[in-house]
Structures are given as C-alpha cells and as structure tokens.
Design goal:
Chain lengths: ~110, ~160
C-alpha cells in the first residue's frame, strides 16, 4: 500500500471519527458549564478522539476488504495488534463487528 | 508526514495554492467585501464561502475540505465579544483546538488550517491575511489530496 493510500485511509478515518456521535457528544460538552476539571476534560476528549480515529481506521479497512484477521488489520492500519484486539473487543461489545470464520489459526472479523 | 512523502511535488515551481475561506456573514464576509470595494489587492488563491456564524461550522467540514483537495482552510469570524449570536465565535475557538488535533491525526499539517478574527471594517486586514496565508501554504507545498496536479497552471489563476 502506497504512502498516499495510507494517508487517505488515515484522513478518512479522522473525518468519520469527527462525525461519530461519541466524539460529537464530548466535544459539544465544552459549550456548557461543567463541574469537572478543564484539564481532565481535555485529556478525556483527546483519548476519545484517538480511540475513535483508530476504530474508524479498523472499520474502514473492514468495509473495504470485507473480512480480515488482526494481523491483516495491523498491516493495513499501521496500528499495533494488541491495540487492534482492544478495539475489536470494544466493537464486538457494541455489536459493530462479528467473527466470520478463521484463517491461519486466527479469527476473521467482519462489519455488521 | 506528508512533508516527506510529497517532497517532489513541493519542489515544483509555480505552485499556486487553493485556499477555502469560511467567512461569517456578519463580520468577516463584510470585511472581505470591504477589501474588494476598497480595491485592496490580494492573491486570487482564495475561495470564499459565506456561513452564518463560525459557531455553526461543523468540525468535520474542515477536514473534508482538505480531503477534497484544498491546500488550506481559513475560518474567519467576528472578534471575541462581537459575535452576532453572542457566543458563536467562542464555540468555534474551543472547537478549533479539536479541529487542529483531528487534522494532525488525519496526517495533514495543522498549519494548513487557520482561525482568524476579522471585523466588517477590516478590509485591509483581510487582504493582508490572504497574502500571508498564501505565502505560508506555498511554503508548505500542495495538498497530498489534490485530484489533479495543477501546480503549473495554478489553481488561483483560473
């Protein structure tokens, strides 16, 4: 995969992340008076933004390729496999992805 | 990241950047209008889109504009305290931090996006800002998302 394609994938994930309800909700909270510490709030938004970016990179790759293993996802997204597993657990919990068979002793995942 | 990847494209001479400016209806758009009626000269690299308020601007729109091939995005609103809708520009100011981070995480240089305050009477400031931003983007080089490499013909010289 060329650098240009990688960049496109990254930017598309960032756009999708900005459109995601989760990130919109926390970003919107800055408009109302809050009782929580500003520093803690910003840190939380940053971490949510990063999570959303990474999850959209994973779901973008799955949308494009259909079914993929963790190893393949790591190759396509440039993320660490352990980080991908964490996101897969979260995405499975929300029902966004499911297992779809096995390949080379690894589970395949697909979007619902 | 993009700096290293597209070094060759940047090296090409005569690159004319395409800057999309989102100007608020009440101050910045009037400021841009004043720049025109006052006959201040500024580069033709800018494309102005009028919006009612910067506070109404979607964060994803900035990234989408860059993704569609713009070399830079300018968001221009009323000075703090002068917003027609009381606090629209303050909302944008906070959102701008996240926009910058999102642009960076999307693999694009955050310097391509700028937030500025321009009042209806600051035609000269608008012209100077466009000149300055055009130079800044020229230094950064073309956006990696340019559909067609128009560095020779120049996007702003159509």
């Amino acid at each position: 995969m060329s650098d240009k394609e990688k960049l496109k994938r990254k930017t598309d994930a960032a756009i999708d992340a900005l459109k995601s309800p989760r990130l919109r909700w926390v970003m919107g909270r800055s408009q109302v008076k809050m009782e929580i510490d500003e520093g803690k709030y910003r840190k939380a938004v940053d971490s949510i933004m990063q999570e959303e970016n990474e999850r959209h990179m994973i779901s973008g790759a799955l949308k494009e390729k259909g079914v993929l293993t963790v190893e393949e996802l790591a190759e396509l997204t440039g993320l660490q496999p352990d980080r991908i597993v964490q996101h897969i657990i979260a995405l499975r919990r929300t029902g966004a992805i499911i297992e779809a068979g096995e390949k080379n002793n690894q589970y395949l995942y697909k979007l619902i | 990241m993009t700096k290293d990847v597209f070094e060759e494209e940047k090296a090409e001479e005569g690159f004319e950047p395409l800057i999309v400016a989102y100007c608020c209806n009440w101050c910045s758009y009037a400021g841009a209008d004043l720049a025109g009626t006052s006959r201040f000269e500024y580069p033709t690299n800018i494309r102005i889109i009028r919006i009612m308020c910067t506070g109404r601007m979607d964060a994803a729109l900035v990234l989408e504009t860059l993704r569609m091939g713009a070399d830079g995005v300018l968001i221009a609103g009323c000075h703090p305290g002068d917003c027609h809708y009381q606090k629209g520009n303050f909302i944008m100011e906070k959102r701008y931090d996240y926009i910058k981070k999102a642009v960076e995480s999307g693999g694009i240089e955050p310097e391509r996006v700028r937030l500025e305050w321009i009042s209806a009477s600051e035609g000269g400031k608008f012209a100077a800002l466009v000149r300055e931003m055009t130079e800044q983007i020229k230094e950064l080089g073309p956006s990696p998302f340019r559909a067609v490499d128009n560095s020779k013909e120049g996007a702003g010289n159509e």
